[in-house]
Amino acid sequence: MFKRRVINPRLSSRLAWITLINFLTKSIVFTIFLFFATKFFNYQYYIEIPYVDHIVRKPVVIKQMPERASTRIRDRQFKTILQAAIDEFSLLGYKATSVQSIADRAGVGKANVHYYFRNKENLYTETLNHIIELWNVSFDEIKASEDPAVALDRLIRAKVRLSYTHANASRLFANEIIHGATHLRYYLKHDMRSWVREKTAIIQGWIDDGRMDPVNPAHLIFLIWSSTQHYADFETQVLTILNHAEYEAEMIEEISDFLSTVILKGCGLKRP
Fold first, then answer.
1. Low-confidence residues of the chain, pLDDT below 50?
2. Phi, psi of 15 (to 5 degrees)
3. Is 175 found in the same domain as 67?
4. Residues whose CB is less than 8 angstroms from the CB of residue 96 and which lie 6 or more positions away in sequence, other chains included
5. Which structural domain range is residue 128 located in?
6. What is the pLDDT of residue 152?
7. 41 domain-assigned
8. Residue 129, domain member (yes or no)
9. Does residue 204 sit in the same domain as residue 235?
């Protein structure tokens, strides 16, 4: 015969309360962890995309919290850190640059950098994304209905100004390409390739309509990129040969006039 075990009601109630408190405590701790984790990881994660001979990491931005993203972009400290990163990466390169050196240049603590960026690679990727947006915005404004001479002249002048105002950004981007575009390979193969096709279609439309001489639209874009960015990437060479200490407003205007005249003339156009 087995004796029936009698459970003390008070003990049973106490165990139930202990179990409930334990569950609530774990839930609160997990919620706090998720809150700080999403801030720390900057609402980004990485997926690995396999190719035949390598693996490329593509940054994917979670778009569930646009208010947080827009606030972050406007944040003054975020911009300060981003500019410091551009300066450090362009001066020392990716491998020689540390998060601490970026924090020192920005005048903030290392923890402040990690608040916005998960690690050095995440920060480097963000600087490249920022530079690409700067480069593309002037070309994105070009419309097929525009006068090709006016549109191309505006693009050339905008790119020359960017090379003057964002020289380190230009050098950083060029250095990344020269070293094999390890962090940009996916972007170049997919996003940039599609973007260039859209812009070449506009130029080809101008050619088909007889509004400019037949030229290779892709090579025209490459020419505008390379000729305008030359004055940033090879600033020391240009200024030394021309016996100038730095670029001045008159010099930037002269460079813009020269490049616009030469490039447009090669397209059968006259500078407006």
1. 1-8, 40-70, 72-73
2. -65, -40
3. no
4. none
5. 120-266
6. 96
7. no
8. yes
9. yes
The enclosing domain of 125 has a CATH number of 1.10.357.10
- 3-state SS, one letter per residue, for the chain: CCCCCCCCHHHHHHHHHHHHHHHHHHHHHHHHHHHHHHHHCCCEEEEEEECCCCEEEEEEECCCCHHHHHHHHHCHHHHHHHHHHHHHHHHHCCCCCCHHHHHHHHCCCHHHHHHHCCCHHHHHHHHHHHHHHHHHHHHHCCCCCCCHHHHHHHHHHHHHHHHHHCHHHHHHHHHHHHCCCCCCHHHHHHHHHHHHHHHHHHHHHHHHCCCCCCCCHHHHHHHHHHHHHHHHHCHHHHHHHCCCCCCCHHHHHHHHHHHHHHHHHHCCCCCC
Q: Is residue 1 part of a domain?
A: no
Phi, psi (deg, nearest 5) at residue 249? -55, -40
Give 269's contacts (C-beta < 8 A, 6+ positions apart): 148, 149, 152, 212, 213
Q: Which two tokens stand for residue 230?
A: 């030359």
Output the pTM of the full model: 0.67
Domain count, the chain: 2
- Read off the pLDDT of residues 202-245 as tens digits, 9 standing for 90 and up: 999 999 999 999 999 999 999 999 999 999 989 999 999 999 99
Contact between 196 and 203 (Cβ < 8 Å): no
Task: For residue 186, give both structure tokens.
Answer: 């996916």
Question: 162 is written with which tokens?
Answer: 């960017």
**25 lies in a domain?**
no
